[in-house]
Amino acid sequence: MKPTRSILIGLVSVAVALAAGHLVAGLVSPAASPFLAVGNTAIDLTPTALKNFAVRTFGENDKLVLLGGMGVVLAVLGVVAGLLSRRSPWPGTVLAGLLGLLGIAAVLARPTTTALSVLAPLVSLVAGVAAFRWLWSLAPAVVPGRRKFLLSTAAVAAVAGVAAAGGQLLAGRVDVEASRRGIRLRPRETAPEIPFDADFAREGTPSFLTPNEKFYRVDTALTVPRLRAEDWRMRVHGMVDNEMVLTYDDLLRRPLVEKTITLVCVSNEVGGPYISTSNFIGVSLADLLRDAGVRPGADQLATTSVDGWTCGTPVASIMAPGSNALLALGMNGEPLPIERGFPVRMVVPGLYGYVSATKWLVDAELTTFAAFDAYWARRGWGKKAPVKVMSRIDRPKSFERAPAGKFVAAGVAWAQHTGVDGVEVRVDGGPWQKATLATEVNVDTWRMWRVELDLAPGNHTLECRATDRTGYTQTNERAAPIPDGATGWHSMVFTTE
Ligand SMILES: Nc1nc2c(c(=O)[nH]1)N[C@H]1C(S)=C(S)[C@@H](COP(=O)(O)O)O[C@H]1N2
Ligand SMILES: [Mo]
Fold first, then answer.
1. Which of 359, 375, 387 most suits a substitution to test ligand 1, by most atoms within 8 Å of the C-beta?
2. Sheet harboring 447-455: ordered strands across?
3. Can you tell me which atom of ligand 1 is nearest the CA of 306?
4. pTM of the entire structure?
C-alpha cells in the first residue's frame, strides 16, 4: 500500500477513536472522555518540578500546551501505525488496541470514575480498531479502487468530526451559565469601600481589587468542572457531632458577608504573579463548623472538589477569632465565575491556596493531619502552609530604561493576617530607605508601596523587603517555592540614562 494511504488510515482511525470516546463521554460523564482523562492523569502524575516548570513557562496556558502536545503525540502515533501497516493490518491494530487500553486505564484512574464512565474509553477502543481494520480492507492495491477508498475515508473522518462536536455539545448541556445568571447575592454586611489611595496603580502597582477575569488562576482541572447551584450538595462529616448535607439554598439562608481578601499561590517564585485580591461574598466557615460540632482532636478539614482534587486545612486557622474563613459564593459582586469554583469554594486568609481555597467544593471531612494527606501533600508540599511575609517590585520593570533623575519605584507587600508594618528599598546595595505605604484596607490583603528615588545615569539594582506588625523582617535567605513557599528579597535590574 502507498505510504500516503496508510498514513491517512492511521490518522483517521486515531480521530475516530478520540471522537467516539468523546461522544459517549458526553452522554455518560464528560470527565470520562479518554483524551481528557489521559491529560488529567498526566497532570496528576507529572513530577512536581516539571509541573512548576510548566506553570512558570506557559503560565495559564499550560493546559492548552498539554492538550496540544497530546494531539501531536497521537498524530505521530497514527502516522507510525499507518506506516507499520503497509503490508499487514496487525501492527496498526495492536497499536490502536494499546492506545485504547491506555484510555481505559486513564479513565479508571480518575477519582470521579463510575462504572458507566468506563463505557467511553471502551467504545473508543472498539471504534478505533474497527475504523482501522475497515479502512485498511478498503485500501486498494490497484488504482481503480482509489475513489471508493478516498470517499469512505472522508466519510469516516466527517462522522468522527460530528461525533466529537456532539460529545462537546452534550458535555455542555448542563446549563451552568443559566444557573449562575439566576443567582443574586445580597450580603447582609458589605465590605468597606476601598479607599482611592489604597493602590498606586498609576505608578505601576496592580489595582487594589483584581477584576475577576484578571485574577490569577491555578488548578489541576484540564476542563472546568460544570456544576449547577441547584444540583450542588456538600456533605460535612467525619469527626463531627452532627453530620450535615448542605444545599446552595441552605447557604443562602445563612448570613452572607463580604470580605476583601488577598489569595496567594505557593508556586510563586520571589516576585511572582500569582496573587490577587477580591471582595469575596460567602458564609462563615467557622460558624458552619460550630453547627456541625467539631469533635476534639480533629485538627484537619479535608475538602474535596467535584473533580476529586483534595485539600487539607488546619481547623485552628478556620476557628481562630477573626479568621474570616469563608465558604465563598461570590466575587466582586457576582456569583463565582465557573473557573473560580462555581458554585462554592473555600477561602481562608493567611494560608496559601493549595491548603485553603478548594474550588468546586463538594465534600468536607473533619479528620486529623496524621490520618490524611491531601493532593499536594502527597506530592512533597508542606501539609501546613501559612503565607510568608513578602514584597514585590512592580516598577521598574525588569531591564527597564528610564531617564536619570527622579524615579518612582512601586510595588506590593503582604503579611497576611498580621499586616504590613513597613517596606524598605535600597539601590545598588546602599542604605535602606523607607517606602511610603498606601492606606491599609485590612490585614488580610496586600498593601501597595511607593518610593521616590534620585538616580544617576547607569545600571542599577533595586531591592525591597517588608516588615510585618510583629516586627519580623522578610529574610534574604533564598528558598524555593517547594515545600511551603519561596523566601528572599525581590530585586530588579534596570538602567537610567
Ligand atoms: N478544585 C481545585 N481547587 C483548587 C485547586 C485545584 O487544583 N483544584 N488549586 C488551588 C490552588 S494551588 C490555588 S493557588 C487556588 C487558586 O485559585 P484561583 O484559581 O481562583 O486563583 O485554588 C486552589 N483550589
Ligand atoms: Mo496554588
1. 359
2. 390-395, 405-414, 447-455, 436-437
3. 1
4. 0.88
